[in-house]
Amino acid sequence: MLSISGVHTFYGKIEALRGVDLEVGEGEIVTLIGANGAGKSTLLMTVCGNPRAARGRIVFDGTPITGLPTHEIIRMGLSQAPEGRRIFPHMTVLENLQMGATISDPQYLDDDLERVYGLFPILKERQDQRGGTLSGGEQQMLAIARALMSRPRLLLLDEPSLGLAPILVKQIFAVIKEINEREKVTVFLVEQNAFHALRLAHRGYVMANGRILMTGSGAELLANEEIRAAYLEGGKQKQ
Amino acid sequence: MAGETSADHTPIDAQELFKEAGATALVVFALCFSLVGFKTEDVPGGLDIITRFDDVLVATALAFIGRAALVLLRQGYPLPVLATALPVTILLIVLHFSDAVFSTDTAAVLKRFLPFGAPVIDWLVTILAAVFAIRAAIARQRAGSTMTTEEREKAMDRIGARVQRAARILGPLILGFAIILPFLPMADRRILDIAILVVTYIMLGWGLNIVVGLAGLLDLGYVAFYAVGAYSYALLAQHYDLGFWVCLPFAGLMAATAGIILGFPVLRLRGDYLAIVTLGFGEMIRIILLNWYEFTKGPDGLSGIPRPTFFGLPFTRSPPEGVETFHSFFNLAYSPTDRIIFLYYVILVMALATNLFTLRIRKLPVGRAWEALREDEIACRSLGINPRNTKLTAFSIGAMFGGFGGSFFATRQGFISPESFTFIESAVILAIVVLGGMGSQIGVVFAAILLIGLPEIFRELHQYRMLAFGAAMVLIMVWRPQGLLAHREPTLHLPERPPDAPRVAGAAK
């Protein structure tokens, strides 16, 4: 569904991505894990066209999308919950969700609202509240819900667990699973929380210094010694 | 100012008091010495310098006392301040009105005791003394505690929210007043002229509010579109002999086009950078108007711009042969105020149209996209919104209303020249939007009345007008930086739906 091959991305002179190859198949949950500064978010943003890939090819559903402006890429059926949530703080929850439905046919609005309220019941309670007054977890839910309002076939999530309490992380990941299984939405998940992400995902990629180091099924990667040392127990011991 | 120490208070920090008050007095003295101390005056045979050192000394002393009062208030001693400020205020007021109470001779003697020779400055001193007295009284009542900034913010926010909610009632009330205004007994020519001016600025404020308040694009060159509208109408009227109503849409269109032409290359800029470019554009338009003599008559301006007609009926006393006028058609006696009243209603309708348009478009996808763009451009892009086109629509629609306003200005004045379209106009319109609270429609109304209406009413104050204007702006920025009524009402509410009512799939949102 999404195929990335040989992508290089630069921030000025700094090469953030050094030839990345990655595949996301229809119906999958694919996760990309790695340390800070590995280039995970950059890859996600490059898929969305900002920054643009300097070299390489990104194909979505058979259509090359390299170099297209973000808003056109989004209109092809790909949706992104950007890093840092980026909800509209002065707009209500309902207005935020409606902004998410910008590109979809207004006749679906009621159904889609019902659908995301089903996934995140708390948002229904909060629908008249301003986005900025929500808690961190609720904001993250709102960001995901907003991304779902455009009826995407591929959902890109950038660190949905960032800054959330463990119980909320569990909840968010459960919903991601539900979105994938029930709604048949393909999910590409960028995460630092390697344990949860790998348990959830069908397949995973490990990234460091702008390159893909390793790939395999979620269970394989979870069992891999190096991964355990670098991203799981290793991290724990350091604390 | 005797210090009165009560047992539960820390003693007055006299050192701090004298240090601060002394420093303030020094600054005032340094400023006043050359600015106030020397004055040139025309005397037969040339210029003469007169000195006014007595005024300098009085000003320095007043600054010292005022600052000392502030320090005392801060340290929690309102009583001595009150004891000084209140009698001073009363005394000054008595002195001001002394000619009404005493004979002319006594009054003349008494008036000499006013601190300065100029009535305006004396009144300012009186007002300041009154402010001190009131503050001291309040501080005394609240046992020395003044509201913290945060408390005040919250209180103002609550007031803001309440006013916005009251706007549903307040709006129609103000509108009703605006409609009957020309028929009120107090409405003379002067009041009407001020009202027209205020409503013009309300309309411009509403127009700019689309760009600045909704879309969050800081536009310092709004007057450019105002100028384009005015010149479009004036030139079309002169060259093609067209009337106001025919030209109005064209003028709006021209201004919108100017908005697109400017917006296209610069809207990728943000914040300060956009502000600078728009500022430059505003000046460019003015300089082009000034220098393109063959087309715009440059600094001479364009005169003889036709007045608007009432469905083809002109407002003239003695029309050319065969032309029916407003008063003859309706069998009225000719009155020059008719035209002013008509102009007033024209601008009122235009302003209301701007407001209705904004209220309506805020609920449409494009309006909501503007607001979302103001909040977070990156999020907007990731929702499939084309930021450039969205900004362009905001910019050009805002420009269009500026153009309408400009045409009205041209037809009201009958004469336009580049001098009417200086940067200060942009600044005033922007000030109205910011002061009212960005994005608040009713806030613009209050701000326009405050910024345009009050200075016009106090026109007698001459040059001190701008001084007071500046002081008011500074005070607003200190007390209420986010604007008077910065409270955004959501545009969207779900209708209360009975829990088990059948839902029609695909029902209108």
What is the 3D shape of chain B? globular
Separation, N- and C-terminal Cα atoms of chain A: 39 Å
Low-confidence stretches of chain B: 1-8, 497-509
Mean pLDDT of chain B: 82
The CA-CA distance between the termini of chain B, in Å, is: 68 Å
Chain oligomer state: heterodimer
Silhouette of chain A? globular
Write down the domain tally of chain B: 2
Describe the structure.
The complex is a heterodimer of chains A (239) and B (509). Chain A has 239 residues and is of the alpha/beta class. Helices cover 39% and strands 26% of the residues of chain A. In chain A, a hairpin with a 2-residue loop joins strand 1 and strand 2. The N and C termini of chain A lie far apart (39 Å). Residues 235-239 of chain A have low confidence and may be disordered. Chain B has two domains: 14-146; 178-479, no CATH class. Chain B is 67% helix and 3% strand. Chain B contains 20 helices and four strands. Chain B has helices spanning 14-35, 53-75, 78-96, 98-101, 104-111, 119-141, 149-180, 189-214, 222-240, 244-266, 271-291, 293-296, 326-329, 337-361, 365-375, 377-381, 387-413, 423-436, 441-457, 464-479; strands at 38-43, 46-51, 302-303, 415-416. In chain B, the strands form two sheets. Chain B has a two-stranded antiparallel ribbon with strand order 1-2. Chain A binds chain B through residues 48, 50, 69-71, 74-75, 79-82, 86-92, 94-95, 98-100, 102-103, 106-111, 127-128, 146-147, 150, and chain B through 365, 368-369, 371-372, 375-376, 378-387, 488, 490-494, 503, 505-509.
Question: Any key phrases for this structure?
Answer:
heterodimer, A: 239 residues, alpha/beta, four-stranded antiparallel beta sheet, 10 helices, 39% helix, disordered C terminus, B: 509 residues, mainly alpha, 2 domains, two-stranded antiparallel ribbon, two-stranded antiparallel sheet, 4 strands, disordered N terminus
